[in-house]
Specification:
17 strands; mainly beta; 12-stranded antiparallel beta barrel; 2 helices
Amino acid sequence: MRGGRRLGTAIGLAAIAATAAAPPCAQSIEPRSYSAAPVGTNFFILAYANAKGGLSVDPSLPVEDPRIKTSGVIAAYAATFDLFGKTGKIDVIIPYGKLSGEAFFRGEHVERQIVGFGDPLGRVTVILIGAPAMSPAEFATYRQAFLLGVSLQVAAPFGLYDETRLLNLGQNRWSFKPELGMSKSWGPLTVELAGSATLETANNDFLLATRRTQKPIYMVQAHLIYNLPRGTWAAATITYLTGGETSIDGVSKGNLQRNWRAGLSLAVPVTRAMSIKLNASKGVSARTGNNFDLYGVALQYRWISGM
């Protein structure tokens, strides 16, 4: 079952946007999100991430010289299932972390330290073409060619939030992220492309009861993935996002985002059922200063129901 083990290694690890705060999630780098696995495969993932830079501050605010860090642990569960003959997957992600930072707000020095839960995430993925629902025995002979899939990720406003503070772990609004992804393999090399739009509801308790709205954020990712022997794989990624202009009480702030990010990932099996993934990403260019560096490590345990 060598082929199945190689493909199954990544699917749970790729479910993790390796950060503990909500704002970078719209810019998360996730190679191998559209990979096949046999029906009934379960994943438990425990990840640690550290991010610092221009994150967690709304660019519409008069904030100068922000110095912000987040770090935390993410617990996630993922499972594959048969959806009308297609391979489906569901992810549930719970972030818990620490956010600390300082900046000048309207000319005054402000600081903030907070520890708690961020907004939980749920996602459903369906591979429409290239990976029908398979049993473990059928998956043992499967070889990827072209895959086309869709997903919908939802962030719920349950994270820690204080309307009187600039920096928060929760965002106090719902977020919906539909995505279309595809991948094509040529021997050990896989190219994966994905495009998404992040849509947010209004935050009616933003900074002392003002109303904050945000236009959709559009993102495109390209991943170049190389499969090494014994289930190890490495990936290089480039991401571009645009949009996200905000309005406060109906007044537009003219803060269109145009951000580029680049990242590297490496996944290595530790045992037949356990894998470890290292990842790092860096902002290359950001129009609004919403730029940060991210480093993370994730440990995944995989099992198949009934086996």
